[in-house]
Amino acid sequence: MPSSCCSGFERDVTRHFNVEKVADELKQYRENGPGVTTRLLAEGIAQSGALSGTLIDVGAGFGGLTLTLLERGASSAVEVDASAAYIAAARGEAERQGRAGTIRFVHGDFVAAASGIGAARIVTLDRVVCCYPAFEPLIEAALSRAEHCLALSYPRDVWYVRAAMGLENRQRWLKRNPFRAFVHPVDAIEDLIARAGFRLANRRETWMWSADVYTRE
Predict the structure, then answer these.
(1) What is the Cα–Cα distance from 100 to 65, expressed in whole angstroms?
(2) Cβ burial, residue 124 (10 Å; 0-12/13-18/19+)
(3) Strand 146-155 relative to strand 74-81: parallel, antiparallel, unpaired?
(4) Average pLDDT in the chain
(5) Is residue 3 part of a domain?
């Protein structure tokens, strides 16, 4: 996921989500299946009745959510990610699962690339909002591409999640890793989405994550 919202974003993402980290995540996916937020978003989208047609998966990683939604009813997808390692892994996994012909891969920051990507019935952001210092440009770009459904997972805005994120960022600082994660105010996220004409269809939560599905009124 160059960036219009923060200098050096793509560089920091590429450094953090490197070949070794991505390979480890892909290994876990192949052994254990999709992660918890991926499963929750897929279930929420299906429950909302929006699971059909085209998909844009923002910050798609190695493609776990894309592949899950294609298996469950989506017809085609665009995967966007700022990490070159993720894009390479996503291509390989799509080929392994026989889905490469239905997926377009875009390497870059979605905020900068969105104007060159057509609209889709569904736009997803699984654990992506927390990667942006300023969430507004990201969500606005996603809303501009979403015809019917916006689905996103993000850290819950509660004290213990903020503490956990702070500890992780401290560890990154000690290792001279410039990547940071953020806990954004839920009220502001909800207001931004509501003003675009979307309503909350369902919300699923873990102790750390919220997985929300919105549909256009």
Answers:
(1) 14
(2) buried
(3) unpaired
(4) 93
(5) no
What type of residue sits at position 100? A
Torsion of CA 36, 42, 47, 53, to 10 degrees: 170
Mutual orientation of helices 186-195 and 135-145 as an angle, nearest 10°? 30
- The pLDDT tens digits for 80-114 are 999 999 999 999 999 999 999 999 999 999 999 99
For residue 189, is it within any domain?
Answer: yes
From 165, 153, 158, 103, select the one nearest 128 (Cα to Cα).
153
Secondary structure letter of residue 6 according to DSSP? S
In a 13 Å sphere around the CA of 66, the CA atoms on its Cβ side amount to: 31
The residues that bridge with 154 in the sheet, in sequence order, are 210
Query: How many domains, in total, are found in the chain?
Result: 1
pTM over 0.85: yes
CATH number of the domain bearing residue 62: 3.40.50.150
| 126: containing domain | 9-216
Q: What is d(CA 69, CA 48) in angstroms, rounded to the nearest whole number?
A: 13
Strand partners, 209: 155
Contact, 93 vs 67, CB < 8 A? yes
Residues 155, 87: Cα–Cα separation, whole Å: 24
